Amino acid sequence: MLATFQTNLKDVREKIIAIGEDLVKSNELILEALQNCDTKKFSEARNYIKNISSRTDEIDNAIIKILALYTPEARDLRQVVAYFKIVNEIARACSNTRSFIRGFTDVCNELDVETINEYTLPMQTSTVKAIKTSIEMMKVDDADELQEMYESVLIEENKADDLYEMIERKLVTQAENSSKSFEKYHKMLRALRKSEKIAGRAISVANLLVYIKMGGNLHN
Amino acid sequence: MAVMKIKKFSFTYPGVDHPSLKNITLPIEQNKITALIGPSGCGKSTLLRSMNRIHDLYPGNKYEGKIELLDLETGKYNNILDIKKENEFIKLRQQVGMIFQKPTPFPMSIFDNVAYGLRIAGIKNKTELHDRVEVALKGSALWKEVHDRLGKSAMGLSGGQQQRLCIARAVAVKPEVLLFDEPTSALDPISTGAIEELIVELKKDVSIAIVTHNMQQASRISDYTAFMYLGDLIEYDKTENIFLNPKEKQTEDYITGRFG
Fold this sequence. Notes:
Chain A is an all-alpha fold.
């Protein structure tokens, strides 16, 4: 492929990594904010993922231009298509992060310390690790290293999934015991579900990056 | 800034009633690649050949309008359709070089092929000749492959190497514009890739117009694209606009293969 194709694709990759790193920073700040329900930190976390749609639009248009001008094939085609889908996953992870912040800021103080320490913090820790590793995968070219990183994203995503189930069981029990607070518990669960979803997006991103390297069929 | 301005240009071959090109207005931008695309018989090669008046090797052509070439020294535009003298034609073809579909090496050594135009331009000093040949071959990405056999016949090179040699021969006389008439249609994909890389590299020093039937090639390498049909210029725009959002239905139909 021509150098101009490589330059354009490199530019796209760098822009995706930049958004991904902002998403990671935002989730790291959420993790800090969760420890003592720090609303200021929640608000700081939101700042990292502002105006995401204009940034993703710019990348999407650059990808369409690459497809139209260079008609890539084989690995080049897989890369361009995967980037297109990765941008979408990251944009949705940012949206999930915003929803998590919005939903959790109100109810954070009402969650008991035990639930936060035992489940919420480990779940968000796993989410951060999953998304951070998947974004780092974008800089890796070695197939073995990529596979290893994919496995670790998978483990963290599974952890986040399991921890969410545990929180869900605990909060549902609490809600049953106090029917007046049902709405409060429902809000908490809805917000925490977003963190689990972000980890899910991380595994999709990792999947797509493995697809670029290994080929095969595209699947979600 | 345009290095060449084609203004209301019409062209009629000798013995034909109807013009092959009708009222074409088009700039060739400096240090950019302009692709001319369109179905066979649309006049793109005729237009390209008019840009260094290579048709005038045979008499009787009719020209209307103007093709103005920027004189880089004076900054003025000169109408190349006014040229009548043989020495002016030679100068024009040094300023506006042409690469053809099939590689056309001369039956002489690699060195002499590149030095040919330089000698016509009056360069006789051996050291200067050698330096200019080396620069041209390096600029055409051929030096590494031929530096140890410059005295050997150019006919022994592969098709892709012969085409790069022809580019070196054209580049050696430092033209303002290079015209490529389907330069890769007779080459395999590897040689095509090498020539495309070279054309993109060359635009730093020279303005380029290229005729191609390969849509992907036009979209990959060009900055501007002109779509022609039946002697008319249908649309001219930045390449990304032509291939992403063409204004004319005919252009869209052609580039998406729905033509006719």
